[in-house]
Specification:
mainly alpha; 345 residues
Length: 345
């Protein structure tokens, strides 16, 4: 990769990592489900009128929109609202790589090799250490919702692999149109119209700024740039940069929010990042002979953030990034770290 492309990949990872701090700030202005709805509304409009018609079947847009946008980001934002720290959330979401590998085995027949299985075990050990640390110092419910968000991210990664979108930005913008109404309805029922109206009436420049960041910088710029890189370089060259997301997430949370990092959390970070690296970068073995069935599912998929790109990053996702290759957001918060095969020459 050219130095400029390396710098761009590192910048995207930084954008996705800092996104967790921005989300934490945004939760001081909005209820979590309303905040997530606003994020997708601003990401979709006016971009949906500029990117052209959808380039994949609408069932994939709806499926990814519901699983990634409603489930993954709804759970992530709610978990952070319940007290899951921003830095820890950026780290825990990386377990989506393990969920993606498990779901890809079930749905796509991608049998994990020995190195991938070892990586999954190491990453799960990291989650266990992080759970012990959080159980001793913070709300375990928020931590559990972040793990559930990572599982939803894994499902969305597999759906994205099946969709194999040829244009990641087009796909992400259309996906962003799906969660808006369901999230607004859930916010109305669960958070209450009074709380929602109070947040909207009290909107100030800081609140508007965090919405614009998570919508335009994290989603539109982040996934667009990641997809651009994945169309020009092998996923194996681009995807490792997604492992920088929790580094930027934890360091920015310490810098801007004053979050401390305990020795147990450092241990969890080392295990998770190492395990995710093994899980993400070890090739999967297809269960069937090469064919059109395997053609769209032969690349590994790992995180981003909120939690996607032509070959999508993991949000992670999303969204918050997952959000990289194979998934859509990691906003992500969504970091989707490994690409689909939609852009094969």
């Amino acid at each position: 990769m050219r130095p400029a492309h390396i710098a761009l990949a590192a910048l995207v990872a930084a954008v996705w990592g800092v996104n967790f701090v921005v989300v934490e700030i945004g939760l001081g202005h909005f209820p979590p489900l309303l905040f997530s709805a606003l994020r997708f509304l601003v990401a979709a409009l006016p971009a949906v009128f500029l990117v052209g018609r959808p380039k994949v079947a609408r069932k994939w847009i709806v499926g990814v929109g519901l699983v990634l946008g409603v489930a993954k980001f709804g759970l992530l934002f709610t978990g952070m609202d319940l007290g899951a720290p921003a830095g820890l959330s950026s780290l825990v979401l990386q377990i989506q790589a393990v969920f993606t590998a498990l779901f890809a085995f079930v749905a796509l027949g991608e049998r994990p090799g020995r190195a991938k299985l070892v990586g999954m075990a190491v990453a799960l050990a990291g989650i266990g250490v992080a759970a012990v640390d959080e159980g001793a110092s913070g709300p375990l419910a928020g931590f559990a919702l972040c793990v559930a968000a990572a599982a939803c991210w894994g499902v969305s990664n597999v759906l994205t692999r099946k969709a194999a979108p040829p244009d990641a930005l087009n796909f992400m913008v259309w996906v962003s149109t799906v969660p808006v109404l369901p999230l607004l309805a859930l916010s109305f029922v669960l958070e209450g119209p009074g709380r929602d109206l109070a947040a909207l009436r009290g909107l100030d420049w800081a609140g508007a700024g965090v919405v614009l960041y998570v919508a335009w910088v994290t989603t539109i710029f982040g996934f667009g740039a990641w997809g651009w890189l994945l169309r020009r370089h092998p996923a194996s060259s681009v995807a490792p940069f997604s492992l920088l997301v929790p580094v930027f997430g934890m360091s920015s949370a310490a810098l801007f929010l004053g979050e401390g990092v305990s020795p147990l959390r450092w241990c969890a970070a080392a295990l998770l990042v190492g395990g995710v690296a093994l899980t993400s970068l070890s090739p999967a073995r297809a269960a069937t002979a090469p064919s059109a069935t395997v053609a769209a599912t032969s690349s590994p998929v790992v995180p981003a953030a909120g939690s996607g790109a032509g070959r999508l990053p993991s949000g992670a996702a999303a969204g918050d990034p997952a959000e990289a290759s194979g998934g859509v957001d990691q906003d992500p918060d969504i970091v989707l770290s490994h690409g689909t095969r939609a852009d094969r020459p």
